[in-house]
Amino acid sequence: MNSYAHKNPEEQLGVTSSPEEDHIAPAPRVSVQAFCETAETAAAVQSAAEDRRLAKAHLRVEMGGMAAAVEAYHTAPTPNVIILETEGRGDILGGLDHLATVCDSGTRVVVIGNVNDVTLYRELVRRGVSDYVIGPVDALDVVRSICGLFSALEAKAIGRIVAIVGAKGGVGASTVAHNVAWAIARDVGLDSVVADLDLAFGTAGLDYNQDPSQGIANAVFSPDRVDTAFVDRLLSKCTDHLSLLAAPATLERVYDFGDEAFDTIFDALRMTTPCIVLDIPHQWSGWTKRALIGADDILIVAEPDLANLRNTKNMLSMLIASRPNDRTPLYCLNQVGLPKRPEIRVSEFAKAVESQPIAAIPFDSQLFGSAANNGQMIAEIAARHRTTEIFLQIAQRLTGRGVTKTRRDSFLSPLMKKLRTK
Ligand SMILES: Nc1ncnc2c1ncn2[C@@H]1O[C@H](COP(=O)(O)OP(=O)(O)OP(=O)(O)O)[C@@H](O)[C@H]1O
Ligand SMILES: [Mg+2]
Predict the structure, then answer these.
(1) What values do phi and psi take at 116, rounded to 5?
(2) Quick one: pLDDT at residue 105?
(3) Between the chain's N and C termini, which has fewer beta carbons within 10 Å?
């Protein structure tokens, strides 16, 4: 008899081998203990423990493989997940049978081995092993395996978080966030939510011409009530595919939050919304840092001057160091070509920060000024403008997707609609 959680064989074998599955949803608060045999695997597991997606999990690494695990659990209670490294074929199966007698039910077992053999797979699956990962493993393999256990067995978190932040105040980060989210929803066709995290001064409500009462403040000030249904009720609908979790933009309260204040809100949004765009104010605090590090993708918005250059460089190097298993954060330049202003050239900026911007958005006070004052998106007032095209390209780059539907109705579409309804 075994006491591990079960998974069907197809699902089990697919967990670690799907190359296009690059999105890994964070693991919940679970305890994980790894028993390694080699220093390389121990190092990989140790660095997985530092990964943002395992920020909530508690991971402990020990040496000694199967024998050490059996020994340990004779006396101690078992964690949520046990990772076992087994070198060679050895007596994995015998060891697992033995382990099963000391394991609590509900504990999931991941085996890291180096034997690629279907009969062994079958035997492991039969014993209830949740995942078998063929070594040598790197940190991301371990992260993927642990997170996969939970996203496959419980409600699957579907949402990707894109965090957008300015390298300096007032560079246009919010404007970019709102226009890009609009393009993600309308042109890329992904249901999206914009979360305005600038509680005191956020402009998402103005930009989308919405007048919601409290939005995100209701959630962040009542953490115990936050779940998907609660957050859903706080959203205001901007378009078919776009909703807003608005900032109150009132000053009665102050907004000094703890590092983890937004965690449950983001978790709730991830459960229901494919794309969550965080409009992060330009400030450096525990929670803004955490929101950036925890995001799936990051876009820094910068103006082409020296202070922006320094800040972009610092932000990039801090974020790259904190997210060793992730894509490098992206940045774009905004307000490029402001008349009479001396600017750092795009190529020089790119050289100094050692990466290319994904876009350089021209300064255009007429266009951006009318959009802001009318509560409209750039695409609404200038559908064919080059800047509209740039926002669409940024949307595609951030989501890794192309345009899924025609953007403007053709002159035939009323007729087509009629035909379809018949
Ligand atoms: N490319 C542009 N050309 C002209 N004006 C722009 C451009 N991009 C943004 N703006 C204007 O710059 C102003 C500041 O924009 P926004 O509020 O988006 O900045 P931010 O970086 O979010 O500021 P904060 O630091 O307060 O969060 C707005 O009035 C906006 O309309
Ligand atoms: Mg802003």
Answers:
(1) -100, 90
(2) 76
(3) C
Is-contact 193 162, C-beta < 8 A?
Answer: no
The helix/strand/coil state of 361 is strand
- Residue in 168, 174, 201, 305 to alter for ligand 1 test, most ligand atoms within 8 A of Cβ: 174
Q: Can you state the angle between helices 173-183 and 386-399, rounded to 10 degrees?
A: 80
* CA–CA dist 181, 193 (Å, integer): 8
pTM: 0.81
| Ligand 1 pocket: which of 336, 368, 391 to mutate (most atoms within 8 A of CB) | 368
Most confident of 54-68, 109-123, 364-378: 364-378
User: 11-22: per-residue pLDDT in tens?
Assistant: 333 333 333 347
- Strand pairing category for 31-36 and 360-362: unpaired
Residue 309, SS3?
Answer: helix
- Ligand 1 near 335 CB (within 6 A): yes
Stronger pLDDT, 93 or 403, i.e. the higher one: 93
Q: Is the CB of 171 under 6 A from ligand 1?
A: yes
Residue 410 carries which side chain, given as an amino acid letter?
Answer: S
For residues 186 and 60, the answer to whether their CB atoms sit within 8 Å is no
